[in-house]
From TrEMBL:
GO terms for biological process: negative regulation of Ras protein signal transduction. InterPro entries: RasGAP_dom, Rho_GTPase_activation_prot. Residues 158-367 form the Ras-GAP domain. The lineage of its organism: Eukaryota, Fungi, Dikarya, Ascomycota, Saccharomycotina. One of its GO terms (molecular function) is GTPase activator activity. It comes from Wickerhamiella sorbophila. It comes from the Eukaryota. GO terms for cellular component: cell cortex. This is GTPase-activating protein.
Amino acid sequence: MSLETAVTDIPSEDKTTSHVLSDMDQTRLGSHSSVASPQISRTEDVKQTIEELKLKVTDTAQINRLLQCDMEVLEKRVFNRYASSEVKAARTAQQDIGSDQIHIGESSLRLHGRFLGLLQSNTQYLADLAHRCSLSEIDEFLEILCSNIYGNQFNQHEEQLWLLTFLQVLARQFESTREFSSLLRSNSAAPRMMTSFAQRIPGQSYLREVLTPMLEKVLEIEESLDIGPLSIFNELREAGDVSSDPFNLHAAEEHPDYGRINEVAEKRYSKLKELIMTLLQSIFSSVDQVPYGMRWISKQIDLLARLRFQQASKQQTSSLLVGTFFLRYINPAILFPEKYLELKAPLTATAKRNLTVLARVIQMIANQTSQHKKIFIVNMRPFLQSLQGGIASFFENLCNVPDFFHYEQLDHYLSFVSSDNQIIMKPKKLENLKKLVAKYPPRSEALKRSFEDLEDLEVTSDPVMFNLSYEVAKVWWPIKFERSEELAGFLVAKSVLVDGFWANESSTSLAPDEIIASTANSYKRDVYKAAKTAFEEIRTKENLLNVLLDEVHLEVLRLGPYSVHLDQEVLKLEHALSVAKERNMYLRTQIKFLQKYLRASKHSMKHHSPITNVVLSANELHMNKILQYWTFEPHLWPMLYFQLRKTNHNFTLALHFRERLPPLLTFTFTLPDLLTLEEDTINLRCLKLARVPLINMLQRRLL
């Protein structure tokens, strides 16, 4: 294959410049302005828009992380009831987001910034740390890794470092696993990293797009979808629809009510099948919307499985991919949608049970089996088998992505790129990270010396409430895999050429060295010089040059039109920003509600003894203007009274008629319900026979 042929293989309108490659001089290398694309102005505007959107999404995501921590503190306060010594610390943590009024030495900040910069770039050590952490330490470390060390989710440089760390964790997992069936077990680091990835903004955006249609249908279903015969029998027995004869799964067909049970199971099965198909159709039709990182990781899992277990069949590797994607990514969002999505209404107990049933069926699909100890139905086997073809096709398309070194447009670093950025981290998290590093020391001398030079952080207030921004020092990013200098240069040249040909889609007649020259202002000087030097060396070796041009040609064809890619990226970022803002609003609303709940509880505990049972006459309620509208005849008032009972945070209001045991009517409220009604300024609540203003009841401290 000649050089001219390699160049002309790339689609172009004018190929007259390709023959002068060998005579290109230094002057021409710098004269790229004359061949600029007519659409360069629009392209630059779109790139600027993309950068602005990335900054907005990243800032919102970081704030959401802090809000999430604050909400968790409040939830622990509400549900776990901190000891009195912890109440102040929990309340202190709910200060305004972004507070950074903290006095700390400049030298200490600088040393910690240098340490974090080295740590961020050392993906080998981070992967080793994830591999060596105990089960009690891994979750905390992954939280620091995802939300702080690689918290800038739309910075290509950090995202690529995160993916490299993930890849090396996977490599260690595969290397240490002896049996194929033991790969990616739930108690190892790699599956937990997959779940952590789903909680990042790109992952949440995709999950929302895919799961919303199915969740809306689940919320509309009022009856249970559990198709287990024993569960159906218990439900029907409670409703009095079947006999009370014992039900034996092993002799189900012999039970006198088996026909009725099977009829209910068939109806539920039809609805369950409809929900599963809705979910799978959303997944299959949105393969292009799956976050690139998830697709790239799936591709690496498939590759590592085939390299490590060469005797494994294609079906086995496919099953591994299906299990990883569904069980570690889709299923957690189905079981706990409130952690990933913004729901229009709280999930009912029935909806939660139905989602659990759906998750079990998804688990059966992931395991490629039609048997499950908690789900039993004959019709499930052919249904699951009919899905295998579509699932196999989906995962084949899922793994069909270009190498990430050439997928992202900005900051192709490899061994030559430097970067300045910030890492935002609470001092408490930093101290926990330092404990892990001390327990599992790094092998890198530079990182080890930097860690030994750290000064203790001396803060003047509770470190829980502050967030420090560490200026990460400029660091030369080393190559993460042991490559020779020649191969490193080859990859840098390939990366720059791919970006150059791709970005200059209207001027693809340019020769490779012209393309490199045209990127002088697009890359940092070190990258441009490295690519230029590497290409000068490669062009002297015909075989290596042919390989380079073939690789560039294939990557450009795989990436598709550059302008279309930019437009799609803008749409994705706008959608991600919308999701992040909605999540932000949801978290702030929850925090406000929990704070109000705590204030109401504290006020009640401080000024009043707990109410367990209060009897109030109708006349007394009417005189105190608590009961405003009354439909009973006046001569019946002395015979009527209200009974208010409290159990935990539930309040039962019952209207009784004297000398009658059962109440005429009963209403049960929870304190959150009452606070919500008060927040919505709902003054009256119709109780069929009586209308009670709930706000007055709260103000009169009856609750």
